[in-house]
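__Protein archive entry__

___
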Amino acid sequence: MKKGTVTGEVKSIVKEFGLDWRHAYSDNRVRNRVGVKLVGTYLTDIQKEVVRDRMVKRGFTFHYIRENNNGWMGHCDGTRFCFSKK
């Protein structure tokens, strides 16, 4: 995990929950946004709030959280976040 990056910070928070963080992937979006996909991992509403709040405290701008449940054969399903550096 690389500290200071969107993906690294999300992974470290998810790891604290005791969940599988090893299958977290990121992709660059427009306007310096980074999407982080936790494949096969679904967070509760409280866990999503914790991730959002901690990322904002660490200096990232929050854009959205959503669940993917319709991936091809389930390979891409999981919780998805989008943040950018301030």
